[in-house]
Structures are given as structure tokens and as C-alpha cells.
Amino acid sequence: MSSQVDLAAFEAAFAAQAGLPSWVILPRLDSTQRLARRIVDEYHQECSEPPAMLISALEQTGGRGRRGNRWESPAGGGVYVTLVLSPVSRQALPLLPMVVGTALCRSLAEWCGDEPCRLKWPNDLFWRGAKLGGILIESKVGDDGPSALIGFGVNYLAPAGLPAAALSQLGAAVPPLPRVAGKLAADVWRAVSQPLDGATVSADYVQHSLHRKGDEIAWRHGEDSGTGRFLGFDERGFLRLEDSTTGQERALAAAEVTEPS
């Protein structure tokens, strides 16, 4: 699959998707998330509510994932998108990572064959045991309530030198990158634009989770760490574990999760 980038093809692919908010596609950008933050900050400084919008780049020079990790974003190498949703209720905000992850897995399903895309809590997409994509959701608070900056990236070509999965590994069934970007963006936007119910969101997420009930999981958050048996997710999107040391249930709002060695 070619990594050649065609801006006109991206514009046509996004224009073909019904229901998307106003969008801008740039050939090169430091980060779609950073540009979204700058735009939202400008609106908040003027005491105005930011409009719904979509920002996409064909290449990012400073792409970042969760906890500041670098996200390789070469030209033609992947889907790089940030959606701005405003205002968002404080109840819905913590559910967005699960909603976006589920929407991406469902959108990718037609190309993943017998090995579906899975979600590693809290924000990674995995395929065949390797990372296929990631989600980064931030919030900015204005006078009218929080705005959500919903960022996601999906590898189209495998990043050089990294043990990552890519859509190009799926073969000829995968359409060109612009069509993939348009479809993923539209499917995510539809998912986050409807009313969210915590119980339903959690149940949907479990269907795509890499973690299965009873799995032994190791976790780390700052200086704190531990292991436990996976129990599921609650209606807030927290990971539920039976603590290996105390035998009591523990709910994690955020952590790095791995399987114990």
C-alpha cells in the first residue's frame, strides 16, 4: 500500500460522510489535539461556546498519546483526528473513552476478519496482540460547561522499527487511507453525539475488551501499583479488580495496565 498523500482525496472522503460537523484537513500539523486546544481556548477566552468541529492532519510532527508518549504520525501513515464536542455533561465526559473505543472497534470490524480489534483499557486498540491505535480525550472548561477534545489515531502503515499493528497488514480488503479516515471519523462522531447511558456504554465496551473476567492484571498509577483479578467496568468507566493482596474490590479511574509476568 502506498504512503503517498492526496489532500483532495481526503477532502472528498470527508465530504462524502453525512452528519459530520465542520471540518478542516491540513497537510501537516504539529498535532490535531494541540490545534483543537488552541481553538477551544480562544472561544473560552471570549466567553463563547466552541462549535462542533473536526480537525484532521495528513502528517503530525508532534503527535502525542496518553501520558505524553510520542505518537508516530508520518505522512500517509495513519488516521489522525480530533473531534470537538461542546458542551458535554460532566456525567458523560468519563464515558467518552469507552464510547470512542467501542465505535472504532465496530467501524474497523469489516476489515479485521476473524481476529477482531480489541480494547486495552483505558485507551488502546489492539489487533493480533499489537497496538493498532490509541485514544486521547481531554476536556477544557468554559462558562457553558466542559468541551471534550476527542483525539484518536489508527495506524494505516506499520511505524518503522516499532512492534505495532497496521491496517495495511490486513491485505487488499482495506480501502485507501482517505476513505478509512472518513469512515472512522463519521462512526465516532455518531457515537459521541447521542445520549450516553453508563450501564449500556459499559456493557458495549466489555464485548470488545481485551481483558476477560478472571484475568490476572498488573497495574501502575504513579508510585502506586498492584495486581488483581479483572471483574469488569463500572458505569463511570472505572476498571474493577479484586485486589490480590486484600481480596477486596478496587476501582481504578486511571492506570497503566499490563498482564503480570
H/I helix tally: 5
- Main pleated-sheet profile: 7 strands, mixed
Low-pLDDT residue intervals, each spanning 5 or more residues: none
Order of helices and strands: HEHEEHEEEEHHEEEEE
Helix-strand makeup class = alpha+beta
Helix fraction, binned, reads: 25-40%
Overall 3D geometry? globular
What is the rounded Rg?
Answer: 18 Å
Query: In total, how many beta strands?
Result: 12
Report, as a whole number of angstroms, the end-to-end distance.
36 Å
Spatial order of strands in the largest sheet: 1-2-3-7-6-5-4
Strand content: 25-35%
Average predicted local confidence, pLDDT: 89
Structure in a nutshell:
The chain is an alpha+beta fold and 261 residues long. The chain has 5 helices and 12 strands.
Characterization of this structure:
- The chain is 26% helix and 30% strand.
- With 261 residues, it is an alpha+beta fold.
- The strands form two sheets. The chain has a seven-stranded mixed sheet, sandwiched between helices. A five-stranded antiparallel sheet has the order 11-10-9-8-12.
- The chain is globular.
List the helices and strands and how they pair.
Blueprint: H1 7-15, E1 22-26, H2 32-45, E2 53-57, E3 78-85, H3 96-112, E4 118-120, E5 124-127, E6 130-142, E7 145-155, H4 177-192, H5 198-208, E8 216-221, E9 224-233, E10 239-243, E11 249-252, E12 256-258
Parallel strand pairs: 1-2
Antiparallel strand pairs: 2-3, 3-7, 4-5, 5-6, 6-7, 8-9, 8-12, 9-10, 10-11
Helix pairs in contact: 1-4, 3-4, 3-5
